[in-house]
Design brief:
The complex is a heterodimer of chains A (420) and B (233). With 420 residues, chain A is of the alpha+beta class. Helices cover 55% and strands 20% of the residues of chain A. The N and C termini of chain B lie far apart (48 Å). Chain B has 7 helices and 10 strands. The chains are: A alpha+beta (420), B alpha/beta (233).
């Protein structure tokens, strides 16, 4: 038997003899790992669900006009030719943003390998009324034939046909919550009040339901041509929506598209920066809480091991007297720290797994940022890997001081003290 | 023409102390041993006696490579312990020395056989082999039936016999005993001394025993008396 096996033999026996004491240290580590797995699973479950829903219904990059462009001045329209005039006040509504030559840009974008789709859109605010009910809406004009390549919305249709936007002259697709709020059903005719005050008839050709309640409560899709009519922006494309093969590459691609086209390009991360920074903040807080619990667990190991080292000074001396080297003693106590943390980590991992399993079956109706009927949990195996790794590191670090102290015991000083 | 007979080579002493000085204490320094010389041959049974503070335990720890001299030399089987590092001295103790202390110093978590096995396991023996030798040592000391008992299930005398078994099981060159009977009743003390006599006689083991008890000291083949850190007889 070599020194390593002997150290393990002694370490395990001493641990077993102090089951109650060591089980307290094990419980501390278990709690840390349980919290790490449980909290990570819950936080990531919600965040990943939200982000995946956002990615399903939103473009990865949106191109829009950088400069506000003047409309032809009214005086120039009335008095053609040279004119000395100064516009002293201009309102935002006097300006309009647009993508020039959108077809050429779309064609160029679609030739890029990183791009899987590019679509023209025009959006604006309007009001729809149905009977006595009115509701402010987010109006989106799209090309139903090509939009699927950018934001595959057809999969969310729960009633009617998405392509009805193409085939019906005044077809509109409504979010299910909006329709319920208005009391409108498939085939009903609504009235759209445009920003300029003009009214248009809309026929409900499709109802859709995503898992994003905010979108379902406000969004109305119409054909691009109709949107241009309703918003009084004939032939204008307001934004280009771009879908990428790798959504994570959106910031880099957006920067590249800005340089290429001269328009502003916003990645989905930029568009949802408020949520992402909130999630990041949540994650930092959770990591701090987990770290604090693991540190407390580590202090448990540290305190118990220091106590054991003080109590076992005589035994350490005798082991040194019969030939164990300093590193054998060091190893005994490091192994004890590692075994305590490993057992704690395994218990914590099993408890964490059971907790996530339980939570994932728990019926909780959520209508906040994302819609869900169960607790949103993510069961990434990496949580267990991190949990066990952090626990082992904690055990190792916590047992370093007691182990080092044990290895420094001078047998002769102890024996002289007792032997006379 | 025949060659002249060569003289028999002298066996190397088991232990040798040369001009040994040991100063103890940090703030108040006390010279416990003053240039002590002592040679202990192989197979000797030596008792060291002296009053409290005479330096006998300090000498024993130096001879056992548990401590380092302030000056002078300690040779264990010809090896100068001052030339060895900490691990080297630990290895030397494991291979050549066995210790018996006044307080048995058995490890409470291990049974008698396991306590005896530990030095042999550190020496590299496989567990089965170490257990066999531990059981032989316990048998030699009439302790076979107690092999599976833990220290707290044994009497003081039995515990000390287990400590003796631990010291001799790996068949060391030298057994160093520090007041081995000091914590025992007279019957148990007698048994331990009888064991040392037997080990010395039957196995030729070198035994160095520090004791207060002059009656037991006289049982040794050689009696060294220390006074104020020097050998006086």
């Amino acid at each position: 038997m070599n020194g390593r096996r002997l150290s393990l033999f002694i370490a395990l026996r001493q641990l077993w003899e102090r089951k109650l004491l060591n089980s307290i240290a094990v419980a501390g580590v278990s709690l840390g790992v349980l919290v790490l797995i449980g909290m990570s699973g819950m936080m990531q479950g919600f965040q990943l669900k939200f982000l995946s829903e956002i990615l399903r219904v939103s473009p990865h990059v949106t191109l829009f006009d950088k400069e506000l462009r003047d409309r032809p001045r009214m005086l120039e329209a009335v008095y053609p030719g040279p004119l000395a005039a100064q516009v002293r006040r201009e309102q935002p509504t006097d300006r309009e943003t647009r993508i020039e030559r959108p077809r050429d840009i779309i064609a160029a974008l679609e030739r890029m390998p990183v791009v899987t789709g590019a679509c023209p859109t025009l959006s604006g605010q309007a009001v729809v009324t149905f009977g006595a009910k009115s509701q402010g809406i987010d109006l989106r004009g799209i090309d139903p034939a090509t939009q699927e390549a950018c934001t595959p919305l057809e999969q969310f249709v729960v009633e009617g046909r998405w392509r009805g936007l193409d085939t019906s002259a005044d077809g509109a697709a409504l979010g299910l919550e909006l329709a319920e709020e208005l009391g409108a059903r498939l085939g009903d005719r609504l009235t759209l009040v445009a920003p300029e005050g003009d009214t248009y008839a809309l026929q409900v050709v499709a109802l859709f339901a995503t898992d994003l309640p905010q979108l379902d409560a406000t969004r109305v899709y119409v054909s691009l041509a109709n949107a241009q009519l309703y918003l009084d922006r004939p032939n204008v494309v307001g934004t280009l929506e771009v879908r990428l093969a790798d959504p994570e590459a959106a910031p880099e691609v957006a920067a590249r598209l800005e340089r290429m086209t001269g328009y502003d390009a916003e990645s989905w991360q930029e568009a949802n920066a408020n949520f992402l920074s909130l999630f990041e903040m949540q994650n930092i807080i959770i990591r701090l809480v987990i770290g604090a619990i693991l540190v407390v667990g580590g202090f448990g190991i540290l305190a118990i091991q220091i106590m054991i080292v003080l109590e076992k000074t005589r035994d350490i001396s005798i082991l040194r007297a019969v030939g164990l080297e300093r590193r054998d003693i060091l190893r005994v106590f490091l192994l004890q720290g590692l075994v305590v943390s490993l057992v704690g980590a395994l218990f914590g991992a099993v408890l964490g797994w059971r907790l996530l399993e339980f939570l994932s079956t728990l019926e909780v109706r959520s209508e906040g940022l994302v819609k869900s009927t169960t607790f949103l949990v993510n069961k990434d195996p990496m949580y267990y890997v991190w949990g066990v790794t952090f626990a082992l590191l904690t055990g190792l670090v916590a047992s370093l001081v007691p182990a080092w102290r044990a290895s420094r015991v001078e047998p002769v000083e102890v024996l002289r003290g007792r032997g006379g | 023409m025949t060659a002249a007979p060569q003289p028999e080579p002298q066996p190397r002493p088991a232990l040798e102390a040369r001009q040994l000085v040991r100063v103890l204490g940090e703030k108040v320094k006390t010279e416990v041993l003053h240039g002590l010389d002592l040679v202990i041959g192989r197979g000797e049974f030596v008792a060291i006696t002296g009053h409290s503070g005479s330096g006998k335990s300090t000498l024993l720890y130096l001879l056992g490579a548990l401590d380092r001299p302030t000056s002078g030399q300690v040779l264990v089987d010809g090896v100068d312990i001052d030339r060895l590092d900490d691990d080297g001295r630990a290895a030397l103790r494991n291979r050549k020395l066995g210790f018996v202390f006044q307080f048995h110093f058995l490890l409470p978590e291990f049974d008698a056989a396991e306590n005896v096995m530990i030095p042999m396991l550190r020496g590299g023996l496989e567990p089965a082999q170490a257990r066999r030798r531990a059981e032989e040592a316990l048998d030699f000391l009439d302790m076979s039936e107690y092999a599976r008992r833990r220290p707290d299930e044994l009497s003081g005398g039995q515990q000390q016999r287990v400590a003796v078994a631990r010291a001799i099981a790996s068949d060391p060159l030298i057994v160093l005993a520090d007041e081995p009977t000091g914590n025992l009743d007279s019957d148990s003390g007698e048994r331990v001394i009888a064991l040392f006599e037997r080990l010395n006689r039957e196995r030729g083991m070198t035994i160095v025993m520090v004791t207060h008890d002059l009656a037991f000291a006289r049982r040794a083949r050689r009696h060294v008396v220390l006074k104020d850190g020097r050998v006086v007889s």
